[in-house]
């Protein structure tokens, strides 16, 4: 559970302010969009892809997921998110995901040390 909460906080620090800045989103819709993205990215990127591959593959897939998700959310919510803003946000989220995956690896390594 702590891993998911860390992911939500890290994504929220990046995504909520950028959605508020770039789009017509209000705070509620920006927070809901961030939470939904975090859930999807956690389930797909961290629980499936990261466990089956490596950090680079999981990070790239999370960044691609961010592009697709933000494009779809922008279309559904009628936000004026252009491709430059979308790609910038996705790259920042990719960097955050890279840091998050390093956190997961370190956390898992520390857990293994404590069990031994």
Describe this structure in words.
By secondary structure, the chain is mainly alpha-helical. The protein has one domain (2-106). The protein is 89% helix and 0% strand. The protein is built from 4 helices and no strands. The radius of gyration is 15 Å and the shape is elongated. It starts with a helix and ends with a helix. Keywords: Membrane, Transmembrane, Transmembrane helix. The chain crosses the membrane at residues 5-22, 28-44, 56-80, 86-104. This is 4 TMS phage holin, superfamily IV. Pfam families: DUF2512 (PF10710).
Please outline what is shown here.
The chain crosses the membrane at residues 5-22, 28-44, 56-80, 86-104. The protein has 116 residues and is mainly α.
